[in-house]
Amino acid sequence: MKPALQLEGYHFDKIRISANEGDFEGPPDHTVHTKIQCGASDEDPHRWRIILDIETGVKEEGGSIPPYDIGVQVVGYFSESLEDQTMEERQDLVVINGGSILFSAAREFLLSVTGRSSRGPYKLPTIRFAKVSKAPDEAAITGEPAQSKEEG
Questions:
Q1: Domain for residue 126, yes or no?
Q2: Which of 66, 67, 98, 106 supports an S-S bond with 56, CB 3.0-4.6 Å?
Q3: In this structure, are residues 57 and 33 in contact, taking their beta carbons and an 8 Å threshold?
Q4: Is 149 within a domain?
Q5: Please, what sign has the CA dihedral across residues 2, 96, 79, 46?
Q6: pLDDT tens, position by position, 61-120
Q7: Domain count of the fold of the chain
Q8: Cβ 38 vs Cβ 95: under 8 Å
């Protein structure tokens, strides 16, 4: 049985990492912005390309700056074997799960590179990808910080 989603490969098209100046003790208080673009192949609608952009930023004016100024773009190629699903359902699977796979690859890449820097290793926070747009040819997906459920 073929897996529902298969990563065929990925690469980094853009990489920007520079250490910011300042004191960065305590928990990080900055944002990580993500943007995903997705499209199916014209030749095979079960093959997809995802472009994931990730950037760090200041949470609010006067807020703390992140230890690094980061901007990366990861391009991933995926195939899926969902013959009985609609294009929209297949796109949801590819974008949400494929985006998570690429985000994880970027997290490991940044952790490795920043681990040798003056500011120490930087680990991207956990992100939950959620569907925002239903346009099959132009997926607009944003990453949001994962939130724990409060028990009460």
A1: yes
A2: 66
A3: yes
A4: no
A5: positive
A6: 766 778 899 999 999 999 998 888 899 889 999 999 999 999 999 999 999 999 998 888
A7: 1
A8: yes
